[in-house]
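The records we work with from here on pair a chain with its fold. These numbers are not coordinates but entries in a learned vocabulary of local backbone shapes. To see the layout at work, look at the sequence and tokens printed below.
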Amino acid sequence: MFLNESVKVFGGSANPELVKKICGYLGVTPGGATIRRFPDGEKFVKIDDNVRGKDCFIVQSTCTPVDGNLMELLIMIDTLKRASANRITAVIPYYGYARQDRKDDGRVPITAKLVANLLTAAGATRVLGIDLHARQLEGFFDIPVDHLMAEPVMVKYLRDKKIQKPVIVSPDVGNVKTASRYVSHIGADLAIVHKKRLNGKDVHSENIIGSVEGKNVVMVDDMISTAGTICSAAKLVKKMGANKVIAGATHGLFCGPAVERIQESYIDEVFVTDTIPLREDVRKGINVTVLSVAELLGESIKRVHRNESISSLLLS
């Protein structure tokens, strides 16, 4: 057992399987919590364990239903605060509203900052997240943030596959830094796709910088939402002579037309992590591999509790 009785790990209803895996790694029993709805739809939470003076961790992704899972997380934090928990860490494998991180038009919100304020006001004393979409989101919080990356998990998977003639393709210019790190980790070439976003759902890939001819393409991003970006990029690299196309992401949202788009695309394989539970229609519809971040999160929880550095968990 890694942790002592002064630690409690609770899970919301967003991703119970991930909570079980994390607790299994830590050798602890998940904290007891009763979560139900009142007849009018309001959420009710009761913590079943004594948490007075304890170091508490709540594992909850704010994935679909986003607002319901976010509200449940806030209520759990408030419940633990009022039950006299010593420290409350919100472990958020997937942080919803992260893409609304700036004002790119008039009269629009910065919802990522609003959610950060809500978590702090509810009583969270620390946040632990994975691939928050943009590094500047850490600055939205007035409490400590441990920003993990799923790279160690995904790099291990790619290394184990022993891909021949690999080339890491950044599906857009904004992902170049991430793609460059994968280049150094698995010993591959780099290519960059220049895309043009037509609207909120549709993307057109216009040209590519670098060579993909005769190579096996790996595209890695922080999330797959409607799959417009990766499918458009896959079509372009195939046109340029690429062989196999593998697409990976930390967060597999697979919204709207994503599954259908991937089915009709040139993508041979998709891999994601379990920060978001994979829907059954996604499992049946496409060739997808799910990697677990349970060990990464479990080790981080252990180190946060012991006030140890988590920097060594990140690839350098």
